[in-house]
Amino acid sequence: MKRSTARALRLSVAAAAVGGLAALSGAGAAGADGYQGETHLGEGADHVVFVQTDNVAGNQIVAYDRMDNGTLTLANTYNTGGLGGVLSGSVVDHLASQGSLTFDRGNSLLYAVNAGSNTVSVFSVRGDRLTLRQVVNSGGTFPVSVAVHGNLVSVLNAENGGSVQEYVSFFGRLFALPGSNRALGLDPSAAPQFVNTPGQVAFSPDGSRLIVTTKANGNDIDVFRVGFFGQLSASPVANSEPGTVPFAITFDQAGHLVIAEAGTNALATFTLNFDGTVSLINSVGTGYAATCWVTPAQGFFYASNAGSANVSGYQSAPNGQLTLLGATDTDPGTVDASASTDGQFLYVQTGKNGIVDEFQVNANGTLSAIGSVTVAGAAGGEGIVAL
Fold first, then answer.
1. What pLDDT score does 15 carry?
2. Band (46; pLDDT cuts 50, 70, 90)
């Protein structure tokens, strides 16, 4: 049995065990302030883009239908049942994170952080329709990022030194995994918040490691070991990368770790070693300001430069070496981005005015602008999922 298959099986058993215990004990699957929603699970989605507003008056998810030419048409707007939040010092990126809106393809669920309420909303997905199934406590303060591997879900909380809370997904709801809340031990007084709170949580492709970036609060890439039933190691391996301000995380097709570094305004690739250490392969600067986010599409990578209103394209070789392809202008405040499942289209959030820019991804990695939509109430918002 392959390692990834065995891990998925173990997590399914863990999900059933935790979910069953919660049901037997009478614990509400929706959490203290949850919403039960409908009983059916979602059936997935295609040709749709979901955008999170992170509005402090009431967080919302805005659904758009994707036309065959890549342009977006408004479908509906859904309340998350929680509030958005704003980190001090932020202007166009109020959460200062990547992964605040995350799609769980295996379970057809969408997870949205409510930073101002310290909760996470769970939606079932059916086409462009969302059903709110649960609002669950995030296990910390000011949640900013969600990661998924199989039935295991990890939530990153940004404030009070940062923390990670593990959950298992069971029949469309999240159950906190006992004994798997880990404090990051960052300096809670470091200012401004938006560069001194953790940037993202992500699983390695095989689910054996959980990675957290700490940005300027340590300049570390923290790597937790994920145990037999999803429990995290007591502490992470802290990989210090002085001055780089590691922010956003993804992986290339060969399994190399890819980090957007806001301190050096660069994209960097690493080998993720078995012992949790990382080894630098290559680092290539964008030549622009505030390089904080990174998104894969068709084997290329696109780094968002919030201070320069553009995205930089990269090509990654099988050995992890990067080639800079150039930059494409966006609306002001370039932040989070997501590519359609087939990689043909890239959607870029721009935080100054809450606009999502639409691009076609060409065969050579260049981008062609095809339009834009303004998301109501989403200035400064982050969180986008394209399917």
1. 54
2. confident
